[in-house]
Amino acid sequence: MDPRKLSALLSSLVSQLLLLLLLLFNSNDSNHFLYDANFFSILNYFLSSQEIAATLSFVSVSRKRKRTHCSESDSESIGEDGGDPQLGVDRVGLGLTRDPDSFKACFRMKSSTFEWLAGLLEPLLECRDPVGLRLNLSAELRLGIGLFRLATGSSYPEIARRFGVSESVTRFCAKHLCRVLCTNFRFWVAFPNPEELKSVSSSFEQLTGLPNCCGVIDCPRFNIANDNDNGGGIDSIAAQIVVDSSSRILSIIAGFKGDKGDYRVLKSSTLYKDIDEGRLLNSCPVLVNGVAVSQYLVGDGEYPLLPWLMVPFVDVVPGSSQRNFNVAHSTMLASASKTIASLKNWGILNKPMQEELKAAVAVIGACSILHNVLLMREDDSALCEGVGDYLVHGQSSQHYEEADSIGDKASIIRDELAKGAREAHVSSLGGDPRGSI
Known about the structure:
By secondary structure, the protein is of the alpha+beta class. It is built from 15 helices and nine strands. The strands form two sheets. Strands 1, 2, 3, 4, 7 and 8 form a six-stranded mixed sheet that branches. α6 (111-126) crosses α7, α7 (139-152) crosses α9 (167-184) and α9 (167-184) packs across α14 (357-376). The longest helix has 31 residues, at 37-67.
């Protein structure tokens, strides 16, 4: 039975029953019935039943309305490109039941993650519509349109045809998803607090034997198509990331021009300033062979050697401690390579983005947040199976060597870490030469 008809019937029955009770009590004792406890119990029960029935009816009708793509009055404005307005709902519904591989190809995640994300983002996705246009679209459909754009990199007209909505609605849903993620869920890519960094460094130490490492830094580029007076072209955006041993993004700063070198990007970032001024990586050092080793990051040869940034040795001798350090160092760099490969596995980031700079930066941020969400959900869609060229780092192309006291201190730290890497490489037996200061 229609919930609204059922609610009306229950309401009518309850009202008639209450009227009958009033007449019965009134016929027996008109002055006493208002004070009868049994009467109030019965009255409260039926009022509660009526309220519950009305609430269930409202919820059912409300949910049904949310799942409706658009009403007849809205279909003309939303489906202006000739698509069937109901088609989008049907396509998403079919997507939730299709085979897992096909679903992942469309949305870059498992259906269980999609449903979890839709429930989490529902109030934020449904609370805003384009100016002057009311979209009667469910959260699932809005999310599906946005994720399909990110996962496949398909054009807005193609997505509009696929989901049966107008191109303007497709553009709005895709951009709104990126806006919601970057505005409300940026904490998913926030730099860990000191307590959380202990777990990060512990994982790296178990992996390589090198203590106190708090992340791997890298700076991938993402292409963006420009529309200049010379007939267009391809520009790139630099996005500086820091990742842990599981390839989870700990920090991302995007929007720099792609022709900037990695070190210039680092020096221009708030991360450099926060570390340099002691707001980050400021926990107590550990002793390695009597040398105080503060918390640090590792990076490839595009970065300088700093007390808090370890880069590989150049021109190493096979079998030396420096060689063993480079092997351990390369193992850690692989975490960033996997992250970059996985980010570029999002279709929209794997080719020049047809977006303005601000929108392109939001796309990079949204894909980074979703990358961490997939890892958090243990969704195997997160990591790309093959990293290919992303494993190639410039270990033999180190451009920066610090010659001052800072560089000397950094060299001493790296030398002692290399000895530790050699000890860990040769044998896992014996005592730990390190201690806390």
